[in-house]
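Dear support,

I submitted the protein below through the web form. The confirmation email said the job was done, but the results page showed an empty box. After a refresh the structure appeared. I'm attaching both so you can tell me whether what I see now is the final result or a partial one.
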Amino acid sequence: MKKTFIAIAAAGFGFAAIQGCAVEQGASYETEDVGVSESALAGTGSFVINNDWGNGWCGTVKITNGLPEATAKWQVIMDLKSSVLNNAWNISTTANTGVVTMKPVNYNSTIQPGQTVEFGFCANATAGAARPVMKAWNMATTVYADCATAGGANPTKAALAVAMANELGTWDPLGLLRINNNQVELTQAGIDKCNATTHKCRNLKGLLELQKDGATSDQNIFNPTNFREDLKASFDRQRNHLINNPAPAAHKLVLVSGPTNIGQVQNGVSKSCGPHYIYKATTTSGANLSSTEASRLKNALCFFGEACGDNPYMGFTTAGLSACPSGATCVAIDPGDGDNGSTSTTSAGSAPTYPLNRVLDSIPTMLGTQCITTLGKAGTLQPKVNSSYLHCIPS
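What the results page shows now:
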């Protein structure tokens, strides 16, 4: 998952786009758009029957890693129809007929970027019967540290920071949010600001809706009551923090790149919880922030779990970001690979897998798109209980 980083000036270390939400530098962005884009469906996969003698056949599957990182795991879902496997090599299978999930054996789980892995199998069949088809496939690389979720509250609070930056272009929790009716909601100023946009703050509003009882069906992963109480406590912490610390100057956040791996690695382990969106931070007139103004941005992140909180999905640094325009201040922040899970899975293939089988998509633009569950079943993204999330429902 994610941490938040701020960089003053652009110096430094490289990064590579990892999770599938590719963005074009300099473009205009209005929605959070987490978890989906063309880059999430990179790579190639194919299945070919090499020999068919009527009452049996043999075939070969090839998949190519389209990710910028080596794979940690991959899977292929085959519909064998009525055929029954009798032999397979370089693969493990969950069954020998019907819809079967095929996964690597211990020596071929790693596929380097751009490289191809091949496996095959033979089966008994009935002459004239339907032959198998590849339903879906994907692969993943897990290059980020696991982070404690606090019942889903930590990454969801970080998601609020992303939504506020993307949809309102600023971090101003005290000016745009308030506590009312026992939960945190938009102030009138926040509502007016949202209404002035074309997107109407769909993601920000959807995340705030998660405070409502019954907002999610995954109580063991995300608890609305805990989230609601955490937000209220965080609001008070933010208010108290600004009593003793200078408030950030009025600013504007503009997305310039991401999600990207910003390369925060120590002792071979990534310090961050996942890829980050990178924003250019300026004054409201568009001028670059001074180093002092940049440092004060941290004081607006208390509500989201930074500066005076304990959220492992948030962080702060003055290291350089290569995507940041020269002399500018950039902010890198992002809370999840499409959901609020505790692990980071980067998918490529014909159908992504999401860590908790769900993706934040309150518009929704991904309704009905292909996915593969974490248990290896092909499905599509469908609404369940909460309108802000789509869940991967097996076909």
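Response: this is the final, complete result; the empty box was a page-load delay. Residues 5-39+145-333 form one domain.
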